[in-house]
């Protein structure tokens, strides 16, 4: 991960999703997207917080095993969608995201 960071950038929060990773730095959100059956192909999305126009959390109910976070980035009509399993509290992640987007 260090090779992705600028000299004055630091990781402040990181969350493991089902296969992917969300990394909150002091400058941007980095989405690590593992692709393919083996997960060897990895795509890195770098999103400055100021580019995030809005986001939403969707759950199916108390007993649902999955929840979804959608993030809209300026210039794109289609949101980035990330699926969370029950082990990770999606409300905690959206709270951290809200903190960075608001500042």
UniProtKB/TrEMBL annotation:
Organism: Ornithinibacillus halophilus
Pfam families given in the database record: bPH_1
Cited PANTHER family: BHLH DOMAIN-CONTAINING PROTEIN, HYPOTHETICAL CYTOSOLIC PROTEIN
Domain Bacterial Pleckstrin homology: 2-101
Protein name from the UniProt record: PH domain-containing protein
Entries under InterPro entries matching the protein: PHb, PHb_sf
């Amino acid at each position: 991960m260090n090779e992705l960071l600028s000299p004055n950038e630091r990781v402040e929060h990181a969350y493991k999703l089902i296969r992917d990773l969300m990394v909150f730095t002091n400058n941007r959100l980095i989405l690590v997207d593992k692709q393919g059956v083996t997960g060897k192909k990895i795509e890195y999305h770098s999103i400055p917080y100021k580019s995030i126009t809005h986001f939403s959390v969707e759950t199916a109910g108390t007993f649902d095993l999955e929840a979804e976070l959608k993030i809209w980035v300026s210039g794109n009509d289609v949101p980035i969608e990330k699926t969370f399993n029950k082990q990770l509290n999606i409300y905690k992640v959206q709270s951290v995201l809200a903190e960075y987007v608001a500042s």
